[in-house]
Design brief:
heterodimer; A: alpha+beta; Heat Shock Protein 90; Jelly Rolls; Phosphatase 2c, domain 1; B: mainly alpha; Transcription Regulator spoIIAA
Chain lengths: 526, 95
Amino acid sequence: MHNDPAELSRLSPWLAGLQGSRGWTPSDLFRIELSLSEVLANIIENAFPFGGIHEISVGLEDTRTGSSFTVEDDGIAFDPVSEPGKPMSTRLETAEIGGWGLHLIRHYCDRSAYERSADRNRLVLAFDRDVSDGKAARLRAHPLLMKIPKAELEELVGRCREVEIAPGEVLLAPGEANDTLYFILGGQLQVHIGSRDSGDGFAILPGEIVGEMSIIESKPVSAWVIADLRTTLLAMPEQVFWENFSTLPYATRGLLQLLIARVRKTDAVLQGEFARKVHYEHIQRELSGAAKIQANILPSQEPLLSSDRVRASALIRTAREVGGDFFDAMTLDGHTVAVAVGDVSGKGMPAALFMVRVITLLRTSLRRAQPLSEILPSLNRMLCEGNDELMFVTLAVAVLDTDTGCLAYLNGGHNPPYLSSGGGPFRLGEAPQGPLLGVDPNAVYKVQNTVMKAGDTLVLYTDGVTEAENSLKEQFGSARTAAALDLAGSKGDVKALVGDLAETVTRFAGDAPQSDDITVLALRMA
Amino acid sequence: MDAAIKLENPFTFQVASQKAPVVVDMSMVDFIASIGMRLLLQNAKALQGRGGRMVLYKPVPLVRDALRVAGFEVLIPMYDDFDTACEAALAGTVA
């Protein structure tokens, strides 16, 4: 046949035609058709990633004990015999579509062999006649039992019990004494390390064993072993293990191999645990260090400015993780003050350090009394230099001459400010054009000049205010911000104004988690 | 094999357009392989996503065994009694 899914429908009539001459029971026919259709479907789906038409041959041979099928293809190498089984999900939500093919083949097929030669895959599946209940087949499929000669295997198994447990049933519980070695023949068990519902653990698949530790060490069971699926086990009493099993030539080697694989698996689980814990602690330290830096560099003393011609107040409500917002307020000389609000990209230590740089450079530029039109361009150039982590910052700066009321407003990609004249309604001011800082060293920035009179208020903020979201995914927005300022502004001083706006935003967001810092700064001419 | 391909769209349409509990009568199904299992699982998942539940009614022993080996027992419950099957399907459905 060739590698076309439609060709799969030829399998059934072909096998049905052979059933009579080979004396297959309905059960035999089912097993054979299921196994072959799995193998062929898998080949058609996965063996030819580059497409094209390919021949797959299926041959039948009669053996002493039954029938043997040989499937050959020239696709990419794939050995279903040695492929390790994948644990199966026990919940519909997380169940993957597919992946059960190998389980089916292993369960139904008595013997299998794989060979790759001359760029061809050759898979042999043998089905024996006497498997009316499949028991002998499942036993022989178990790696620890498969090399044991038939007669000795029968004697051994005669001294054991075959057990079936339902999903959810506990096979072993910690602290119990255990004197049985279990060979998993079909289904799936789950080892739970720690508590019964612990997510830490691993699956035990057909072909493995469980209980060996408590037998060998004569110590109580150390973990929960619970069935994920209906599981069939061969239960071998301790005595039979020592007297009959361990004396068989292949048995102890196989057992040691399984134990080593188990140690590796547990090791991997523990290593993963440890690595996660170290990583988590590292992140926590970095975040708290960053938060400390942020707290230390920002002005904390109120009043923010020492002039009595002007009042300023600011606050930041940080989000759970350090979000990168900052503000600053400086008295530059007897008649000049400056305020700023900004938002650094990113979180954690790199953002905090970048913030330190931004604030320090800004303060230095302002104190050096650089021409105002030069402040953002030179700050931007300095931030672009050596900016390996490609951090950037939005920034709004207002420099006020408290004698004349002249206000110079500088903007680097930041939100436009709100202005209120003499206690009137707040409206959005026009921010001069200018991109955020740290990206393009040649960016051009403009200065906007206005005049503030007694009673005028300027409000700077970050997008943590306007873009605050509630659980309905609505944003706070600029209309609400203006309204909240109007409501609060008439009442008290700048401190109350700032506090009220922050409070209104927080109430609006409600249960929705705060994803960004909320920063508000208000400046009012007395 | 053919049957699964022919069945796919009508089956999916029936199941996928419902929000109700679904009892799949398996009593006449005498063979199942990957394709059939895929069909069942995909639809069971889709149904669950919409608050419904799928159960299988009277799968024949060979098919039941195959579904067990593929780990379906804990994903899509199987019942031999029609009333129990209906109860289970209703119980698992979110109204």
